[in-house]
Write a structure and sequence with these properties.
Layout (H helix, E strand, L loop, with lengths): L9 E6 L3 H13 L3 E6 L11 E4 L2 E4 L10 H10 L2 E2 L6 H4 L19 E5 L2 E5 L2 E4 L6 H7 L1 H16 L7 H26 L8 H7 L5 H11 L16 E5 L3 H14 L3 E3 L3 E7 L5 E8 L2 E6 L2 E4 L3 H6 L6 H8 L3 E11 L21 E4 L8 E4 H4 L11 E9 L10 H15 L10 E12 L8 H11 L3 E3 L1 H5 L5 H17 L5 H4 L12
Parallel strand pairs: 1-2, 1-14, 2-10, 5-6, 7-16, 14-20
Antiparallel strand pairs: 3-4, 6-9, 7-8, 11-12, 12-13, 15-18, 15-19, 16-17, 17-18
Helix pairs in contact: 1-9, 1-16, 5-6, 6-7, 11-14
Length: 526
């Protein structure tokens, strides 16, 4: 009988414990015992920007994360981690009243790990009026805009259909799809808030990736589809979906579950481990990863590296990179943001829809603030993502106020108290809050490099990608920051699936990894 020859175990280093990194680690360990996987995570938390932060028994979703994907691999993976449960209704009776709201109920941390089915409601708050997001052509929209403004918007859209501008900027991208009037009302100011740049200075690539098939025509098709037979099976743009999945206790619950599975299969997760450099062999391949932990410099050997760290930081820590490639990577921009969580008894905004909610709150998950007179970009109502997110969801509202900024700027450097005071004053000015006396508690969360931006040296990023693909055969760049691409959570996971498939099959061409989320059909706003 022939002796069994055991394969040598390969050391796989995964940089980052966000959706991409955890998905890659799980897939490698789940499918084969040939790999020893170590995840190096700079922070002390699981999930990256998809983590859930707790404050006095309440939970904050950093950025907001709808679990919806047109990639069946991703949907199946989510359901494997956390099965679906419940109804899409916002009525807590339909869901089953949250156990932790009942006297003597179990600790919510011990509740079953399940995904709820939720209604998707997001609207625009503009000049103290609500508009559908994306903008619809309902009678309510026309009434809110006014007859003359609606005529102007319609004429502007028709003009954009006849005379298409060259799509060499995000401004022209939007104007071609919505017309100048709607662009000026609902896109121009908000985009400048988000990026700190006028849309005319931003690459159209961002629009083609994030807004792809969405336009006035797409909205009209969707409206018609809803009244035709068989509309439930119709194909819709992602921003027009009406339901999504959501973990009972926020997105971080799913990623903490995934991390536990990784550990069960022998994977290691090292927190507080900031990667600072990479060692390379004579052939350019990565041989080791250098990181700092507890104020000490550590090194770990690597046969394969999957990196979700910011592309500019990866190149900065890599020796032997040509100067032109290094400069392009160094110039890749990011946008940071701050979330202020406020616990309040109620909001001055009442639920005027037909959707039942706890505490008569507006049913929105997100409210987009288009007014340029305030810095506030979006409002999250955590009660509506899941009633389990709020300790006393029946008589409290926990809201997240999102501000876009740059690390180190005046807003970023505010103390927590200064930041909260600023946010409260804006809500009072907008008529959403009566005054500071209504605030029962607060928490501020700052997030670095939340959004890879599409300006400065971004137009030459292909040179960086080409260099990595030709010279670093055992390095795979995955995830939002790993590819400097404004990916959604499911796209980040898909880059991990593709990279792992390449590792198992020995495929050297990485075009499949880099081409995730470049198709023209898919769309999401976050």
């Amino acid at each position: 009988m022939a002796e069994r020859v055991e394969k040598p175990v390969k050391n796989v280093i995964v940089i980052g414990a966000g959706p991409a990194g955890l998905t890659a680690a799980y897939e490698l360990l789940h499918r084969d015992g040939e790999y020893h996987v170590v995840i190096l995570e700079e922070t002390e938390a699981i999930g990256g920007i998809s983590r859930t932060v707790q404050y006095q028994g309440n939970r904050m979703d950093i950025g907001g994360h709808r679990f919806f994907s047109k990639d069946q691999r991703v949907s199946d993976w989510w359901k494997k981690m956390m099965p679906l449960q419940g109804s899409p209704s916002y009525d807590d009776k339909a869901l089953g009243r949250p156990a932790h709201l009942e006297p003597g109920g179990p600790d919510p941390e011990q509740a079953d790990r399940v995904m709820l089915i939720r209604n998707r409601v997001s609207r625009i708050y503009y000049q103290r009026k609500f508009f559908d997001y994306p903008i619809s052509l309902k009678w309510q929209t026309i009434r809110q805009m006014g007859f003359l403004c609606t005529l102007k918007a319609g004429a502007s859209y028709l003009a954009s259909c006849i005379h298409k501008a060259k799509e060499d900027s995000l401004e022209n991208f939007y104007r071609n799809r919505f017309g100048k009037a709607l662009y000026s009302m609902f896109f121009e100011g908000y985009t400048q808030k988000l990026w700190g740049r006028h849309p005319s200075a931003i690459s159209a690539d961002w629009g083609s990736q994030r807004v792809k098939g969405l336009s006035v025509t797409a909205i009209l098709k969707d409206m018609c589809g809803k009244i035709l037979p068989g509309n439930r099976k119709r194909k819709v743009e992602t921003s027009l979906i009406e339901e999504f999945w959501y973990p009972k206790f926020g997105p971080g619950q799913l990623w903490e579950t995934a991390a536990e599975e990784v550990r069960k299969m022998g994977g290691e997760i090292l927190f507080g481990s900031r990667v600072t450099g990479l060692g390379r062999g004579s052939d350019g391949r990565i041989t080791e990863v250098v990181y700092e932990k507890d104020q000490r410099v550590e090194k770990v050997e690597a046969d394969i590296v999957l990196s979700s760290m910011p592309l500019k930081d990866l190149i900065a820590g890599m020796p032997g990179v040509p100067e032109d490639v290094r400069q392009i990577a160094q110039g890749l921009p990011y946008r940071d943001f701050v979330t202020v969580g406020l616990l309040v008894p109620a909001l001055n905004l009442k639920n005027e829809t037909q959707i039942p909610t706890l505490n008569n709150l507006p049913p929105d998950c997100w409210i987009y603030v288009q007014d340029t007179g305030v810095k506030l970009g979006r409002i999250q109502i955590f009660n509506n993502w899941s009633p389990y997110m709020v300790k006393e969801a029946g008589n409290r509202a926990f809201v997240g106020l999102e501000y876009f900024c740059q690390e180190g700027d005046e807003f970023w450097n505010m103390t927590a108290e200064e930041c909260v005071d600023f946010a409260i004053k804006e809500l009072v000015r907008m008529g959403i809050l009566a005054g500071r006396e209504d605030v029962l508690g607060y928490h501020r969360e700052r997030v670095k490099k939340a959004y890879p931006a599409y300006f400065d040296t971004y137009d030459r990023i292909d040179q960086v990608i080409d260099y990595l693909n030709r010279n670093c055969g055992n390095l795979y760049c995955i995830g939002r920051n790993g590819q400097h691409r404004y990916n959604n959570m499911d796209h980040s996971m898909a880059t991990a699936f593709e990279a792992v498939e390449n590792i198992f099959t020995g495929r050297e061409d990485k075009s499949n990894v880099w081409s995730v989320n470049t198709e023209q059909e898919y769309h999401e706003e976050r």
